[in-house]
Design a protein that fits this description.
The complex is a heterodimer of chains A (162) and B (160). Chain A is mainly β and 162 residues long. Chain A has one domain. Chain A is 0% helix and 36% strand. Chain A has no helices and 14 strands. Chain A is globular. The N and C termini of chain A lie far apart (38 Å). The mean pLDDT of chain A is 89. By secondary structure, chain B is an all-beta fold. In chain B, a hairpin with a 5-residue loop joins strand 4 and strand 5. Chain B has one domain. The termini of chain B are far apart. Classes of the chains: A mainly beta (162), B mainly beta (160). At the A-B interface, strand 2, strand 7 and strand 9 of A face strand 2, strand 7 and strand 9 of B.
Amino acid sequence: MPARQNTFGPIKGPIVGSYLPIAASQYFAFGGGAFGDLNSSGHYTIAETADTALWGWALAPKSVTATAGLTYYLSSSTAGADKLFVIHCVETVFDMPTSTATMAASQVGELCDLISTNGATTPQYANVGTNSTDVLRVVGGDITLDIAHVVMNEATLQKDTA
Amino acid sequence: MAQRHNSFGPVKGPIVGSYLPMAASQYFRFNSGAFGYLDSSGHFTGNITATQNIWGWALTPKSVAASSALAYWTSSSTAAADELFIIHSISTVFAMPTLDSTYAAARVGELCDLIAVNDGTGQTANVGTNTQDILRIVGGDITLDIVHVCMNDNELQKDT
């Protein structure tokens, strides 16, 4: 996984998005996904396991060095102080790691969940084979590397933050 | 300009790009352009005034906070320690600032240069000048002195 940590992100399809303010202290792990939703203030927040709607994927900076031991980009502790470019189109294909769930060819065509906790130690994974929130559609992947290619499920896109 | 400083960047067209390593200590001012080229190590480097080639535009983090008085994002002082998503498609339209009172409707269709120093002062389209001609002007806003540009495909960096 570490050798590919900087390849996770959009790999196919259109990229449409905007710069959006980021909620306070959001962790974007280099080796994980960057899906999120908007809070009631319109600030982008990393999606967590139980979230039932997605807004998009944030193009956070990444790092290839371990000199600082840093494995994530962390937004400011002040809500809305930072902005990142956030992709919101449902046709974009993202590649991201799967967790302990094994990527299999039969997963293509299925919906799945996320495993994610906003913190320094837990990247965001596609939880292939689970169907509680169904925020992602699996459209491909790499069985050997346990990487899933996913798009956002348009049925669970976040439509209203009010 | 300040109230629009987070609106600079891609405004129309396709966005095609990749995460690329950054050269050391590159300054990307929030209310500015973010065009750059690749050095011989393949590291993205901000264009300065006389740079003849152009590779793409970096989607840097921005900030709306004035509390820290920080007006730019800076890459690590270690080359290639940071990676950013770099747009390299030539039909992407980017909004960026021009010098005051230099943009006019007649500029649309012209080529132009950049003004930039890698010190945090930012990158500005130099409409009306034609030394490097790395940008194509495709639109803009006369009142706000904002120009909409594409990269000139003739000056795209083809080989590092």
